[in-house]
Amino acid sequence: MIKTTKMFCAVTSALFAVAVFSTPAAAQSQSAWEHANPNAKFKRCATPDPSAEQMSKMNDAVNKVRGLAKKPDSKPGNPGGGSDGGGGDGGGDTVRPGGSVTIDVYFHVINDSNGNGGNSQAQVLDQMDVLNEGFGGITGGVNTPFTFNLVETTFTNNDAWYNAGYGDGAERAMKAALRRGGPEDLNIYSFNVGGGLLGWATFPTNYASDPSYDGVVLLNESLPGGSSAPYNEGDTGTHEVGHWFGLYHTFQGGCNGAGDGVSDTPAERSAAYGCPVGRDTCRKGGEPDPIYNFMDYTDDSCMFKFTPGQVSRADALSVTYRK
Ligand SMILES: [Zn+2]
Known about the structure:
By secondary structure, the chain is α/β, with parallel strands linked by helices.
C-alpha cells in the first residue's frame, strides 16, 4: 500500500495542478481558456496528432465507404458520381444500426510485482459498462453501432510494465506478450501510467504496420471509482476507444481547415478543461465549443456524447480497418 501511495504522488500532484487552474477559470474570461492548455504538465491523452499520411488514408476510407469518393470513370455529364447506388465495399453508405457490431475486448490489468496497485475485476466490469453506455447513447449522445463484449481479463504482476511510459520498451514488451485477437479486437491495458497522462490509443491505420502495438492504454486510476478525479468515471476509456476507431480530438486543427473531419462538431481553438459552459473559441457565429463531447478534454462529469458525424466516421473506418 505504501508503494502504491507513493506511485500516485506524481499523478496526483499533476492532476491537482489542472484542477487548481480549471476551477477558477470557469469564472474567468474566455481568453484564459484559450491559454489553458500549455500550462499543465498533465495531458488528458497522449494519443499523438495524426500524421498527414494517416489523415489522408482515413479521409479516403471514409469517403469511399460513404460513397463520396470521386469516381475517375464517371460518365461525362454525370456530375458528382457519388449517389448512383453506392455500396459494394462491404459497408455501404449507411451507418450500421445501433448496437449491431460487437467488439470483443481483452482487458489486461497490470499490477506491480507484489501484486498491488492494479484494477479489480469489478472495476473492469464497471469500465465495460461505461463504454457500453457511452457508445450506446445511454448517456445522452447517439446510439452507435458498437457494443463491447469482455472476452477475457488478464492480471499480470510486473514492475516494469506497471510503470510503462508512452512508447517505451516496457509498453512494447507488455503489448507484444499480452495482445490477443486481430484488428477488429480491442485490447485495453491498465497500469500506473506515468507522466501525468490518463491514456493513449492507436489509430486504425497503425495496425497494418504495427499490429502488436494496437490498442488502448488507460491510467488504472481513471477507471470508475479510481483516485484520479475529476477523471475517474471511466470516460478516458470512452475517449481512447474513440481514437481507436479513428476519431480525432474535437480541437484537431483548431479553428481552421478540416478540423476533426466531422461536420457536426463545432471547431474549437484548443482543448477545453473543466466544464466551461458557453466556451466559444472560434467565433464563427456558429455553435459553442463541443465541450460535452467525449473527444474533448473536459472532466468526465462534463463529457457525455458522440455526434452522428463522429459515428458515421467511426463506422466507416471500422468497416475498412476493424474487420
Ligand atoms: Zn485523446
